[in-house]
Predict the 3D structure of the following.
Amino acid sequence: MAASERRLRILAQLTDGSGEHEVARLCEGSAAVTGLNGAGIMLMSGEVNLGSVGASDDVSALIEESQFALGEGPCVDAFREDRSVLEPDLAAPTSVRWPAFAGSVLGAGARAVFGFPLHLGQVRLGALDLYRDRPGSLTDDQHRDALTVADIVTRAVLVIQADAPKGRLAAELEEGADLHLVVHQAAGRVAAQLDVGVGEALVRLRAYAFGADRSLMLVAGDVVAGRLRFDRPADGSEAGR
């Protein structure tokens, strides 16, 4: 099959009957096209993970949630490194990249995960997650199709977002999104308290939650409510109190 015909076939699987892009359809179609179990779409801005705007199933949703909470995983690396990130066996990786992430998703049934950046020229939006419930590398055709899917998803997100008010996420993207607004609010407060960037503030929040064995959402809620502050004592070390 010629490359143009293959792309048209994939495009048809990622749109509804009217030709309109729909986030749920994009996720479900991405999994179907590549022959994998599920897919999720994560948006990022700079070093800040904005959260998931869609997932095809519960395992994909957990994969997105775990990456947001832990700050590691295939989507995070795919976005930062601007390349495909492929892990054919989370249970027996050739090198341990995401120990916390792997531990959180293996029990849910994700055995292999693959991340693909969502970019168009200099515009970088986030990453596409794909997973499979058994180990194994992608075939050449699957890898090629996944790259095509990521390109189509990128363009679809840009089209959806085009008419949104400046500084706001389009309603269609926001409808199924899990953007963890309380975490972003907390990151803003921690950034002000420590005089650091928001990306660094998210790292501090995650580290505190991990060290305290608490969920990131609960820690963020305490920060927003004023029950927890991150201060820099005279010796330069960080403290949460």
